[in-house]
Amino acid sequence: FSESGVPQLVQPMIWDYAADLDVEGKVHLVEKYHRCGFSKVWFASAFKGATGVNQSLTLVGHHLKNHLQWLKVASNSPADVLEGIALTGWQRYDHFSVLCELLPVAIPSLAVCLQALKNGGYSEKIKENVEKLLGMSNLETETFMR
């Protein structure tokens, strides 16, 4: 495959929005792309959307778990293969669907996910930092915020 020249022209993006994504399977996929000549790959996660076609509120914990799983994939993948991660924020599932999880209700999720990636994990200290940054007194991750 590498003789085709394609691996020198593109960088694959591996998408998965599940809270329980298969870390081992994704690591194997990264290794397979690397063996095929791709020197770099991207990951794609979601900080909102991707949980239901008519979802109106963002369940922060789902998206946080997804990012924590991607961190595990990154730490178990070959060194220097990961180029980056794209945080997607779905507005709708298709052009005929209503909008879902508008950006304002998803800002806490975006902040949590970015901080988890920046810090290589999530802790009570990081939660407190996000609360301070957003001017919130109680950031909920396992229930819908009110």
Task: Tell me what the structure shows.
This protein is of the alpha/beta class and 146 residues long. It is built from five helices and three strands, in the order H-E-H-E-H-E-H-H. Helix 2 links the parallel strand 1 and strand 2. Helix 2 packs across helix 3 and helix 3 (60-76) runs parallel beside helix 4. It is globular and about 55 Å long.
Keywords, separated by commas or semicolons:
146 residues; 3-stranded parallel sheet; globular; alpha/beta; 5 helices
Structural class, by secondary structure, is alpha/beta
Beta-strand level of the residues, as a percent range? Answer: 5-15%
Placed side by side, the strands forming the largest sheet appear as 1-2-3
Radius of gyration based on Cα positions = 17 Å
Number of strands: 3
Q: Determine the mean pLDDT.
A: 93
Low-confidence stretches: none
Secondary structure tally, helices: 5
Helix content: 40-55%
Quick one: overall form?
Answer: globular
**Quaternary status:** single chain
SSE string, helix = H, strand = E?
HEHEHEHH
| N- and C-termini, Cα separation | 51 Å
**Major sheet attributes:** 3 strands, parallel
